Structures are given as structure tokens and as C-alpha cells.
Amino acid sequence: MKTILLASTVSFLLIMGGLTLYARGKRAVPVAMDATSPAQAQGQGPSATPVDAAAAELAFAAVENERQQLQKERDQLAALRGELALREATLQTQRDQLQKLIATLQQAQTTATTAQAASATKLAKMFDAMKADGAAQILATLDQDTALQILVRMKERAAAKVLAALPSATAAALSERLTEKGTTLGMKGEG
Q1: How far, in Å, CA of 51 to CA of 18, rounded?
Q2: CB distance 156 to 189 below 8 Å
Q3: Which of 65, 72, 76, 170 is spaced 20 to 30 Å from 48 by Cα?
Q4: For residues 181 and 118, what is the distance between their CA atoms, to the nearest angstrom?
């Protein structure tokens, strides 16, 4: 915008400066008085020649053309600013919606994690009450994550008996996962 304004100002000054120099140059050259000219006969000075009038009209036409071009560019810039403001508002609305969705998902994840932990604790109490062989058969059918959650919540002595009753490959895999997570059996204690 500044470049357009600067270019327009320079163009205007050049045109006006040229007109001024042209007009001064015409005054410096003596003009023969035509006795038939009423304005000259009354002492009002020389009249403008057709060349002067044409040059002035060209200069004014150039200035008007430049003014129209500037107005057109201003209108385009205003339209672009309006479009930009609309897009910014749309993006802000979408950003707000995403933040609400993220908050909702985080809350749902927290709720699900809490419910899963409560369920694992309840199952651990049930498995504590079961015989080791029966608990081992059931744990062997569960996915490793669920089995781990139950094992770490069981009493240490009961969890060790269940782990011993599991098939050796399953017991080894669960023991390895416990080691990776840095978790030990019987977090609940012997209570």
C-alpha cells in the first residue's frame, strides 16, 4: 500500500512539475501579439495555444487515470482486508471448537482411565479370592495389558501364585512387561 501511495505521489509530482516547467518555459518565450485577439488587445496576456491545451488535457487525463487506478486498488485492498478478517474469524471459531473437543476428549479419557482402574481393582479383588489355577486360566485368555493391570492390583502372594500357575510363555511375557514398566506385583500390599 505504501509503495502504491509513493508511486502515485511521485507520478503526480512529476506531472505537475512538468506542467509548471512547461508553463514557465512558455512565459519566457516572447509571443507575438496578434492585434485581432480581444484578450491580447486588452492587455490580458497571450492566449493558450492548442498545443498547450492538449498537453494540459493529457496531463489531467493522466492524473485522473492515476486517481482511478488508486481508487480501484484501494477498493481491492479493502475487499482483501474484509476477506482476511472473515477468514481469521472462521479460523478462530474452528480453533475454539477444536479446543472444546480436545477438552471433551481429555475428560472422556480421564473418565475411561478412572473407570478402567476401578474395574481392574475390583477384578483384582475377585482374582485374590479365587484359586491360583482358576485365576491363571482366566488371565491367560486376557490381553497382556488387562492381565497386567489385574496382577499389579492383586495381593503380592496371590499374584505370585497366579503367575506361577500360568503357562511359562505367558508368565515370562507378563514378567517382562512388568519389568519394562518398572512395576512390581502386589502394589496393593498384603492387607
Answers
A1: 15
A2: yes
A3: 65
A4: 20
